[in-house]
Specification:
By secondary structure, this protein is an alpha/beta fold. The protein is about 35% helix and about 20% strand. Helix 1 (about 15-25) runs parallel beside helix 6 (about 170-195) and helix 5 crosses helix 6 (about 170-195). It is globular, with a radius of gyration of 16 Å. The structure holds 5-O-phosphono-beta-D-ribofuranosylamine. 5-O-phosphono-beta-D-ribofuranosylamine (GRF) binds near residues 13, 15, 90 and 179.
């Protein structure tokens, strides 16, 4: 039987994308194994979800490692210790450090709640993204899955899915519509990576 892809997650908050992916692994829509969840936030929903499923999980942040390089190396080491093949950022609010980027070059993916390259970059997260989309009078927004590079939201785009912006939308109503699409898109992209429909620049 073909080896299942081992996924390592980095998440900071609620963890609804993580939850969607864990569910897809459980019910067999994804031939993947959730190997470890790492969070910079000890109280995150993401760590609670990992606890529910008895997944290996840990809190790594400036609180556990005051030196950013040591933190970066600790993150890379945990991912390697759990034989992670692909790193999935699921609402991770921190930059990925050079050691992790080097170890997992072209093997780190992220989801962003807008149609990159628009409405991305430093400071573009949470409701700010959707406020900017509405303010610009866009008729469409959406979600983007992309490879992670050194700068925020800058790597190769792997897939996008569009969502309408309705008149009368608030940032919160638009965010909710986009989030629903994110959950489906992230699972679909992972399935396409696993099945070779989407080819990453490196062999997994
Ligand atoms: C999502 O909107 C995602 O696009 C962004 O952060 C949010 C995380 O939400 N990167 P959740 O923690 O997965 O619920």
């Amino acid at each position: 039987m073909e080896k299942k892809l081992r996924l390592g997650f980095l998440a900071s908050g609620r963890g609804s994308n993580l939850q969607a992916i864990l569910q897809a692994c459980r019910d067999g829509r994804l031939r993947a194994v959730p190997a470890v969840v790492i969070s910079n936030n000890a109280d995150s929903g993401a760590l609670a979800l990992a606890g529910h499923d008895a997944l290996p999980a840990c809190h790594l942040s400036s609180k556990t490692h005051s030196d950013p390089d040591a933190l970066d190396e600790a993150i890379a080491a945990v991912l390697q210790k759990h034989d992670v093949d692909l790193v999935v950022l699921a609402g991770y609010m921190k930059k990925i450090g050079p050691a992790t980027l080097r170890t997992y070059r072209y093997r780190i993916i992220n989801i962003h709640p807008a149609l990159l390259p628009h409405y991305g970059g430093k400071g573009m997260y949470g409701l700010t993204v959707h406020e900017a989309v509405i303010k610009s009078g866009e008729k469409e927004s959406g979600a983007t899955v992309h490879l992670v590079e050194e700068d925020y939201d800058s790597g190769l785009i792997l897939a996008q899915r569009r969502v309408p912006v309705h008149s009368g939308d608030t940032a919160a109503t638009l965010a909710a519509r986009v989030l629903e699409t994110e959950h489906a898109l992230y699972v679909d992209v992972l399935r396409d990576i696993i099945e070779g429909v989407i080819q990453l620049p490196v062999q997994l």
